[in-house]
Amino acid sequence: MFCGIGVIAISLVVVFGTMLIYLSIREYKPERKEIIQIKNQETGEKLKKDQEISVLTWNVGYGALSETEDFFMDGGKDVRPESRILVQNNLNQMKDVIKKTNSKVVFLQEIDKNSKRSYHINEVNTLAKGWKGNWAYARNFLCDYIPYPMPTIGQVDAGLVTLNRFQVSEAVRYSLPTPFSWPLRVCQLKRCLLMERVPINGSQKEVVFVNLHLEAYDNGSGKKAQTRILAEILQKEYDKGNYVIAGGDFNQTFQQVDQRKYPIWDDENFQAGEVDEAVFQNGWKFATDDSFPTCRLLNRPYDRKDEKTQFYVIDGFIVSPNVEICNVTTLNEDFKNSDHNPVQIKIKLK
Length: 350
Hints:
Blueprint: H1 2-25, E1 33-35, E2 38-39, E3 53-59, H2 84-101, E4 105-112, H3 123-128, E5 134-146, E6 154-164, E7 170-175, E8 192-199, E9 206-213, H4 221-239, E10 243-249, E11 285-287, E12 295-296, E13 311-312, E14 315-319, E15 323-330, E16 343-349
Parallel strand pairs: 3-4, 9-10
Antiparallel strand pairs: 1-7, 2-5, 3-16, 4-6, 5-6, 7-8, 8-9, 10-14, 11-14, 12-13, 15-16
């Protein structure tokens, strides 16, 4: 009996070791800076300096984190929803919302290209189809097989997508530092920024749009390090005389948010932290709207009657000193199709 148990134990160690070696060899290791292909690049409007520009940001939760779902990393139990149809319906409904906002630029996070958790739907194609402009995809999550929990996450290929109605001259992926070391790092996201440059008609200057999704499940050090890199990259663009609009899921709240609106009910799972505004030079402006929460904790399906549902305001924008904020609004989609609400900003160039 003991001999049999020993054989099983040795076999499991061999299997696990072989898998770890394979995944380590196959680990996604992007360069610090990579040029990204712009789809449909020949299309797009010319950007005029005096026009109002609307930008939308939305973490769409790979179409799988809608109101009926929970997630094991947030204290729930599920890895993916029960059906492909639910994912497709969520994507279609979010696509309709995006269209109704009439935004010129859209920052999307958690877009799966070929992942088990979303039934291998190419969500880039789904969300870009019919878009009257161009789009770019920057990968931030690639793993052949994630062997946890049970059932496993499996294959993941996901990233950021920016939809743009303006003429984009260049799209670049900038890598952000990871707080995880080997072997945990092998199956973790490789966070990044997706930067797009849009020339201003009749000017040598550019508007720089930056789509971001910062670290989530770390001890806080990853968020802080990535925020510092973000500040450095944005400042370099502003120093060139460019206009900068960065937005996305910061996984951190903002100083101007009234924390009394969304008290901490759950201190055991995801912790948002706060954006360190001190790492940005004077004049940079932070824009979010706490009229509604922008994110909910996925420890259980959404219960609108539960007063202790854990909400956060972690999605928003940072703009350079030469950008005027006209309005910023959290659109209350009430977490029907995603664990995040979209946020829209309207700006003008000074």
